Structure formats: structure tokens, C-alpha cells
Amino acid sequence: MTNNEQPTPSHMLDLKEWSKDNALNIFRTADEMSQILGRTIKKVPALQGFTVANLFFENSTRTKLSFERAAKALSADVMNFSASSSSLSKGESLKDTLRTLDAMQADLYIVRHGVSGAPYQLQKWTNAAIVNAGDGRRAHPTQALLDAFTFRTSFPNFDGFGGKKLVIVGDLMHSRVVRSNVELWTKLGAQVTLCGPNSLVPPALAAFEGVERNLNLAEAVEGAHAVMAVRIQHERMQKGLFPSLAEYRMRYQLNEKIMERAHPDALVMHPGPMNRDIEISGSLADSERSVIEKQVANGIPIRMAVLYTLLVGRKKS
Q: Is the Cα torsion angle 187, 153, 295, 312 positive or negative in sign?
């Protein structure tokens, strides 16, 4: 670590404590991890002797599997915890459950929880590192990192995030992905435009420097270098936040016609899970502009980089 660099935080609870240089170091480490994943034998002993525990209190496909894949590619031992089949269902407290896992010598916990702030509470009860894999509406830092990494690696002569424009459209109120992306992309120097129904675009999100709020999708995507659709989270919202799905599709669906207003090289992004032909047209999701599958693939090297940085890289700095 040079004198000008900030120290690496002990946890990844959100991206507030992670500086621009910290994030760029994650990207550089992820570049190296991508090379490992391109080999015939996609595994190195970097985390041999470390134990990583997946604590998922909410359902997950992409995040859970990519963290598991990342840990195993680095040769860590992995424990997978399922809340529904654990002693939590018998009345055991979350704190006692964590103490049980600590007794099994877990070095790092990957936590997804429906309650905002749960990973912050857990880090008070353990000396192990904590990675937030999504908590309520609050944060999903590794998703934002993989989104920005995907953008960075999609252009042969990428010259930085300065002057680039990201548009995020959809249910922004209930999205932890949106909050983390706003935090990261603005920190990296990009402009972020938020768009969606008025009831689903909280004015507070536009308080970040470099963020604007535009409820007209055609205007919002003008000149954008990347446009990200996020799904309507029916499970987290009350009724009446917008008139109907039909009207939502008409005004806010990301499709080929809308993308004509974006930059000619603009990327189409979606963090998943995706509701085809609602927030994004199926044909656009499958088009050459789409990097949705690349986002999923990049979850592995980014999460390898996060695990390595928290368990090994920080100790070497």
C-alpha cells in the first residue's frame, strides 16, 4: 500500500468506506482472477486454509452460487448455511447461530438478509470478515462492483468512468442494487440518471453528486453509455405505487426503440432476476448490446477479488 492509498476496510458492508482507489484495486485483482478462470485448471491455492461461510436468509441464485464458485476457485473451505433447515427454525437467536459458526472457525461470512442493517449487526458479534450479499433495500456492494467491472471490460480502449453516463430505470425505491450502483459509479466519476414512475424514484437517491432524476425514459437515455433496467419488486412494495403493468411497460420498458436514443455503443444491463417483456423486452435482453450474461459471469472474478482482498490482500498491505 502506498502512502497515498487508503487502507482496505475490514468488511464489505456497503461501499461508503471503500475509496475509489480501493474499488480500482478490486478491479485490478479481478483482472487477475479472470485470467485464472480462463485456464484449463480454474483453481489456485490462494485461500487454502481459510473457511468461508454462506449465510443466506433470502433466496438467491446468481449471488449465492457465484460466491461459492469464487471461494472454491481460491481453494477455500465453504460452509453453506440454510436458515429454513437450521436451529433458527427452533427458536435459536441469530447471535447464537453466529457463535456456533464462529466455533467452527469461519474466517469470513457472506450474508444475505431481508432486514436492512443485518450484516452491520453481525460484524459486531464476530472477529471474522463480513461481506454483505444484499440486505433489505440497503446495499448490495458486490453487485455494483461486478456491474461497473462489466462496463469497464466491455470496451477495448476503456479510458475511465469520467464523462460516462449510466441510466437506471425501474423500481428504484426497493432496490439495494440501485443504491450501491449510485454510490459506486458516482465515486468512480460517472454521471447517473435515475428514471421510473415518480412513486418509485426516491428524491433522496438523487442527492448524490453526479446524479439526476428524470422521469421521462426517452429523455433520460439520451447519450447514455449504459442503461440498466431493474425489476419491479412486488414482494417488497405496497399496492398502488403505479397504475398497472400495462402502463408501466408502455412508459418505462427498456426496448430497442428507446435504446436508439442512447450512445451508439451503449450497453444494456440488468442485475437479475429478469422479468422479460416487463422491465426489458426479451429481444433486447438477447441482443448484441446486452451484457446481462457477462454480468453473471463477472460475478465470479469480482467476488474472488473481494474474498482475496479481505482475507489475504489486506494482511499483506
A: negative
Strand order in the sheet with 226-230: 211-213, 191-195, 165-170, 226-230, 267-269
Q: Which fold has domain 20-140+296-316?
A: Rossmann fold (3.40.50)
Task: Break the chain into its structural domains and give their ranges.
Answer: 20-140+296-316, 155-290
**Rounded distance between C-alpha atoms, residue 160 and residue 298, angstroms:** 18
Cell numbers of 230, please? 431493474
Cβ–Cβ < 8 Å for 269, 295: yes
Residues 134-173: tens digit of each pLDDT:
999 899 999 999 999 999 999 999 999 999 999 999 999 9
The three three-digit cell numbers of residue 41, written as one number:
485448471
Q: What whole-number distance in Å separates Cα of residue 187 and Cα of residue 266?
A: 21
Q: What angle do CA 176, 178, 180 make, to 5 degrees?
A: 70
- Cβ atoms of 301 and 66 within 8 Å: the answer is no
Cα distance between residue 61 and residue 64, in whole Å: 6
Question: Whole-model pTM above 0.70?
Answer: yes
Tens of pLDDT, residue by residue over 27-58, are: 999 999 999 999 999 999 999 999 999 999 88
At residue 304, φ and ψ (nearest 5 deg) are -60, -45
- Candidates 262, 233, 242; CA nearest to 167 is 262
Measured CA to CA in angstroms, residue 105 lies from 12, 55, 108 at distances of 20, 14, 9
Domain pair 20-140+296-316 / 155-290, same fold = yes
Report the phi/psi class of residue 111: left, alpha or beta, with left for phi > 0 and alpha for psi in -120 to 50: beta
**Neighbour tally for 267: CB within 10 Å:** 23
CATH 3.40.50.1370 is right for the domain spanning 155-290: yes
